[in-house]
Amino acid sequence: MPSNHIDDPTADYEQALAALLTQVSQHPTILAFQAAEKRLKAAKELYALEVEMKDLAKQAVLFKKIDKVKAYQETMARSKVIESELNDAPLIVDYRRKLVAANDLLQHLLQRLESQINEELYRDN
């Protein structure tokens, strides 16, 4: 016979988790990060530069493995130029700032949850 027990800990957990996820997803810091991420993904030219930079870095690793020092140096130099362009792009700067803020928020929430759980466990013992 299925249990319709009102104080089902699993149901309470799932409900609390859903409420927390809803609140976090609606937090202004998370919304700002998601908007910045969307703008960055829509910037096809930045994405193309990133792909080119990664390809150059892979080539450089290959050149280094086969002792092609000059080819390695030239490829890495081109990769570094692209990396510098990307690092200076306003969309990327904005995205990184918002990523750090979102990460800080999530770390804070996790620390609070951990503290509260530890307090409850300590109190129960």
Describe this structure in words.
The structure is a single chain. By secondary structure, the chain is mostly helical. It is 87% helix and 0% strand.
Average the pLDDT over all residues and give the rounded result: 90
Helices, by number, come to: 5
**Percentage of residues in helical conformation:** over 70%
**Terminal Cα separation, in Å?**
34 Å
Structural class call reads mainly alpha
Strand/helix succession: HHHHH
Coarse shape: elongated
Largest sheet: none
Unreliable stretches: none
Total number of β-strand segments? 0
The gyration radius over C-alpha positions equals 24 Å
Percentage of residues in strands: under 5%
Provide the fold topology.
Layout: H1 9-25, H2 28-42, H3 44-65, H4 69-88, H5 90-124
